[in-house]
Amino acid sequence: xxxxxxxxxxxxxxxxxxxxxxxxxxxxxxxxxxxxxxxxxxxxxxxxxxxxxxxxxxxxxxxxxxxxxxxxxxxxxxxxxxxxxxxxxxxxxxxxxxxxxxxxxxxxxxxxxxxxxxxxxxxxxxxxxxxxxxxxxxxxxxxxxxxxxxxxxxxxxxxxxxxxxxxxxxxxxxxxxxxxxxxxxxxxxxxxxxxxxxxxxxxxxxxxxxxxxxxxxxxxxxxxxxxxxxxxxxxxxxxxxxxxxxxxxxxxxxxxxxxxxx
Amino acid sequence: xxxxxxxxxxxxxxxxxxxxxxxxxxxxxxxxxxxxxxxxxxxxxxxxxxxxxxxxxxxxxxxxxxxxxxxxxxxxxxxxxxxxxxxxxxxxxxxxxxxxxxxxxxxxxxxxxxxxxxxxxxxxxxxxxxxxxxxxxxxxxxxxxxxxxxxxxxxxxxxxxxxxxxxxxxxxxxxxxxxxxxxxxxxxxxxxxxxxxxxxxxxxxxxxxxxxxxxxxxxxxxxxxxxxxxxxxxxxxxxxxxxxxxxxxxxxxxxxxxxxxxxxxxxxxxxxxxxxxxxxxxxxxxxxxxxxxxxxxxxxxxxxxxxxxxxxxxxxxxxxxxxxxxxxxxxxxxxxxxxxxxxxxxxxxxxxxxxxxxxxxxxxxxxxxxxxxxxxxxxxxxxxxxxxxxxxxxxxxxxxxxxxxxxxxxxxxxxxxxxxxxxxxxxxxxxxxxxxxxxxxxxxxxxxxxxxxxxxxxxxxxxxxxxxxxxxxxxxxxxxxxxxxxxxxxxxxxxxxxxxxxxxxxxxxxxxxxxxxxxxxxxxxxxxxxxxxxxxxxxxxxxxxxxxxxxxxxxxxxxxxxxxxxxxxxxxxxxxxxxxxxxxxxxxxxxxxxxxxxxxxxxxxxxxxxxxxxxxxxxxxxxxxxxxxxxxxxxxxx
Lengths: 262, 638
Prior knowledge:
The complex is a heterodimer of chains A (262) and B (638). Chain A is an alpha+beta fold and 262 residues long. Chain A contains 8 helices and 7 strands, in the order ββαβββββααααααα. In chain A, strand 1 and strand 2 form a beta hairpin. Chain B contains 17 helices and 21 strands. The longest helix of chain B has 25 residues, at 553-577. Chain B starts with 16 loop residues before the first helix and ends in a 14-residue tail after the last strand. At the A-B interface, helix 1, helix 2 and helix 3 of A face helix 3, helix 5, helix 6, helix 11 and helix 12 of B.
């Protein structure tokens, strides 16, 4: 903890609502503690705005521990700012220089419409999950947890994929606004575990189809997503998703939701 | 009109009580289930698992969350693990031992039957979560790994790195999303519950505000489940997420649901200390760190040397010294108080003097940096980011902070509140933790309630209750909607000069000072004089810019702070009435050598408060607690 303070100039994207035009507005952030987080710095700017009767800058945030995935915007062109594997809520002001000018904008993607200022609507991610990002295990009759052994290496790799927080930085960092890293992380998590085998093909087909339907762009494997990801979700997930998808496409048609005659 | 507090706890041998109760419950036949609708408020571990299971059974479920996605619920932030009596380690664990530890850990202020059921279903929870694909830590041979946690002498904690809550939540969330796909669960995002609607004495719906458009909506159902989490944000600085609030539970309380043991709040011993004026929240460092980290302060008062320069014989490993059998794994209330004592003695570290060291040097020497990084890597990184210090090279600094709340809406064994048809699950209810939650037990309770209790108890209610058809055009809905709208317009029209946060901070300081880690009569009485003054000024001088008819974060916060102001007062009153120390409720007048002194003769009961009207004192009711299996005894961890 340094106890030092800095001054910043912020150029912040202000947009009243989804249908309004937005623009960059300049604010001064004065006497900012280096120990404060980026969001705490914005809180202080907002307190000043509210005191003057102006509307505060809207941004999504919640746990402020880097795990809920609610926060995130673009600072000087980088999703979640300049620090590697860090969400903006965990980005601290000691990483900025006194006198810096910072441009702050929302994540931009057709599938993530702006709600207000720095807030965007990421519910497309939920629809991708509900298109197969689960294992159908009815409650109450599961076998003993140790009845199916999972090699540690597989469990660890599944965990590394499962750790995606769904913040959307991968989409914002991608020149095509592709959601391949997010979708592939969930497909990988489940494809790596024995529990995920039964629905493996349906899952890959349906989730990829939903991702496309939401208006996300195609993946061209430039790797910007991996570089921006606060949780270091790896590009290898996308390769795995592609393999899963092609294997499934060769042998299986998407599940028909109405089911059989019974 | 006082409601009789009937716990409905089953009688007879505790081992078979839940089985017997389940058999006695009424059933709803599968074809009738789809005719019943249930509202679930909150989609954390308890809410998402409840919505998923009820949807799977065939009920029509409407789930509501304040977040933009249910995956953001604050259960996501739990780090260390979830307990289950699996005895995979062959170290003598059993359902009975988990039950025993939890009753004792809760300082004999929990209901025995509920705790036994929690211990009983704990093993099913692990089976269920593994079946859903939660990637728990495993041994090389493929079996599940365990670690130990505070307050227990067996290794029964299952974990997924330091992100157990995240993985469990994503598991429950994905099961709920599966039901969304199947059409049984309808999800409403960014909706905040602002009132409960009661028709013919039964909970029949809720009023919510659409946080994006400001629209006030009515939703009806045959039963309502509140699973909206805890209220630690009353302290302003806490480990809770920014949007955690008491609002949903509080509005239900004002409609007649009793609020139980509000003063039971947990102070977690291992948080990153406060750094400055602008701090918005506190970050927890998982309790699991105490498996390998050793807690100490310098022996000498005012020793300002760098920790690495303080030799071994000049350090006081006070937890190991005072509690030789539990050592660094002493329960949270005990470890928190000890940290406070050391800092009060002037031996605290950090510039503020309000911190102690959590040191991994010995563990790194014993196990190597790689092993430590494998166990706690993400926590070490998080600490480094927040403080700018590397915990592999020097000890972490930690200090206690408000974390989990054991108080909440009163519920009986069926998780039903004093309002028929209103069920309460997870942290929002008061039931299973007594005065002090042990580590790794909150995740367990959330999932137990949602997956393994509510599906039965709600069925019993729906199967055994005559419910008229109700629509949102009913007068009760119209008048509740009107009430919500007029409260919003009242807030918007104050147009004062102070920000919402400034009121929240002022309240939080008073709560921490007088109703925090230590409470005494004079302090609580002072708080009870101060809080009404803040409340009065709030309603005259708060400033909310913008418009109520679209996204307005200041308005959202203002509504929550208004409820915290009322809750804060009740917490202080509850703490003042409880003339004893138990678990996290430490009344300084009642102690022996710094340890909590319980008074079982006079306070072996749950205090449940009844709301009687605006600005009228609440009425305190008692549910006597009986301990037939775990005999009342002084807790000792020495």
